[in-house]
Amino acid sequence: MGRVAAVFVLVGLVLLSQGCVMSGGQTVKIDLQGVEGIQSMPKAVTDMLRDLGYDWVAVEAPDTPFGVKMAQKNNEYRMQFEYLETRQVLIDVRIGRLDNITRLHFYEPGSQSLSESSKVLLQQLQQRTREEFGDVNVSY
């Protein structure tokens, strides 16, 4: 019995460290392999999110003791944005350097679900990503 409990604790700690247990919300995935004309995905995402009312929040960088706008870790660029009007929503951005997949994880900090107002913001984000990158390149 002791081993089984230890395994569950270990699995729980791994999931917590990966953010799997703590964050609800939804991820918008953009496959850039079919998208032409994007010179810089970090700039494209930043411009799109700023138009929607978000701005970047400092993220931890592995090599610096302070937050930065964009960090590189595990072959991906990482950024975070916050909805400025209500500050209720965060978007964690992961731009894959090897697979050309960009993930926008939309969530309310400290919640496993989205409020009605956040669901409206999510729909706006989904619509805008489809407009910017094409329906066939965006999935949820």
Key traits:
3 helices, 29% strand, Double Stranded RNA Binding Domain, alpha+beta, two-stranded antiparallel ribbon, 9 strands
Description:
With 140 residues, the chain is of the alpha+beta class. It has one domain: Sirohaem synthase, central domain (Double Stranded RNA Binding Domain, 2-Layer Sandwich), CATH 3.30.160. The protein has three helices and nine strands. Strands 1, 2, 5, 6, 7, 8 and 9 form a seven-stranded antiparallel sheet that branches. It has a two-stranded antiparallel ribbon with strand order 3-4. A hairpin with a 4-residue loop joins strand 7 and strand 8 (101-107). The longest helix has 18 residues, at 116-133. It is globular. 17% of the residues are buried. Mean pLDDT is 85; it is low at 4-22.
Topology:
Layout: H1 2-18, E1 26-31, H2 41-51, E2 54-57, E3 59-60, E4 67-68, E5 71-73, E6 76-83, E7 90-96, E8 101-107, H3 116-133, E9 138-139
Antiparallel strand pairs: 1-8, 1-9, 2-6, 3-4, 5-6, 6-7, 7-8
Distance from N terminus to C terminus (CA atoms, Å) equals: 40 Å
CATH top level assignment:
Alpha Beta
- Quaternary status of these chains? single chain
Strand content: 25-35%
Q: Low-confidence runs (pLDDT<50, min 5 residues)? A: 4-22
The overall pLDDT average reads 85
Task: Write a brief caption for the model.
This protein has 3 helices and 9 strands; from the N terminus they run H-E-H-E-E-E-E-E-E-E-H-E.
